Amino acid sequence: MIERENSNIATSELEKQQQYMQKMKAYLSEWEQKTGRKQSYFVLTTGCQMNAHDSEKLAGMLENMGYIASLTEENADFVIYNTCCIRENAEEKVYGRLGRLKYYKNKNKHMKIAICGCMTQQDIVIEKLQKSYKFVDIVFGTFNLYKLPELLYHSIKTEGTLFDIWKDAGEIVEDIPTVYKNAFQASVNATYGCENFCAYCIVPYVRGKERSRKPDDIINEIQKLVNNGAKEIMLLGQNVNSYGKNLEAPITFAQLLQKINEIEGLQRIRFMTSHPKDLSDELIETMKNCKKVCNYIHLPIQSGSSEILKHMNRRYTKQQYLELVKKLKTAIPDITISTDIIVGFPGETEQDFQETLDVIRQVKYCTAFTFIYSKRTGTPAAKMENQVPDEVVKDRFQRLLDVLNGVVEEVHKNQIGKTVEILVEEVSKQNSNVLTGRTESNILVHFEGTKDLIGSILPVKIVDSKTFYVIGERI
Ligand code: SAH
Ligand code: SF4
Ligand code: F3S
Fold first, then answer.
1. 89 pLDDT exceeds 80?
2. 3-state SS, residue 139
3. pTM here?
């Protein structure tokens, strides 16, 4: 019963926004008749893949209203910053860019500016925007992204900044129009939010409790994408492998993967991010047995020291993590593994840091995203007293990169001689005769070819390697 009620709320929300999209369409077409040109939009994404996928929905709603994409923000009629606050420098960049945007708006008075995403879920940011960034027209958050049409319509009809920030998530609103990055590869939300409360991390405070989409909603979306040419999908969630626990009819992430594996025409299934504490044997078996599930996993370790992991509230030890890696490699011998690492968490000693280097050497990651710990107000770690001095962190960070690059280079070198299938993604930015693609195990391959191959899956032979990619030849 409750479920019906809730889904009705979500459906009526979508209908309401569709009406606002129609109103905006009428407004924009009148504007076009007066001026002889269409209005354009520019979306800036500063965050993770989930943030980027939200931007695809923002773009989808805007195109539905009649806006056209602008390549630069300087000349756009509507500019929207979809922000991230995971580290301090992500926020600083946004403030810096907003300064420049004010200058553009002074030249182009009818420009509308919106800011949304994780940053705006913090009171301290709202206060700053209210005080020093009065030229911003709309400020909204992560829980009401789908309200863009309504907010934009009201903003056009009124003066001043419109703030609409919710403290918690409402129902999941499905079927928001989306512009996917390309036809052959698409991101699909599996879960929203996170309730792990790792001691350093702001995400649970700005993205709310973990919610899972219903399996049928996910499968229907993927089916539609496949009908439109999608070959590879990426299932997204902050802790994607805990999917399904809170559904009315709970299912496991492995079971979801098994269902998706049956979608005809789909060729590759990826997912991120997996939390080590939720990496079940069932999931490893499913990765092994489901042909379409790629033999690659992003498995953030954060630190190799069990002591630091305890303070981080990660809920696994170094030993447990290494056990998992062993299980993965035994079940799927050609699997590749990537990770996230934080250097300089409060209390990290040289010995703790050495444990992290030890894990890197043992696991042999194909890539790692490395971060200097950034203090986030409101998180437990921000109150910890034993913060590590900057010079010590910088020195460790450099040593971390040195060890990591050696390992990454070795993983790439080990690919030489293999014949693999790649999904061709784009023309190389450095050389227009070279294309790039990715193997099932997420190894980046450069090879000579022509643009018409983009989007196809091809066999190549790996003939050489660099630190971060390999060189292939078509066969
Ligand atoms: N949900 C994912 C990742 C979310 S954020 C997970 O649990 O692994 C992406 C990465 O940013 C994290 O894995 C972590 O390495 C890093 N990160 C998060 N908070 C940080 C902070 N305060 N300082 C530095 N890096 C941080
Ligand atoms: Fe942040 Fe931890 Fe959640 Fe990842 S699992 S988003 S690091 S709280
Ligand atoms: Fe950043 Fe929010 Fe993603 S804080 S990392 S954009 S969930």
1. yes
2. strand
3. 0.95
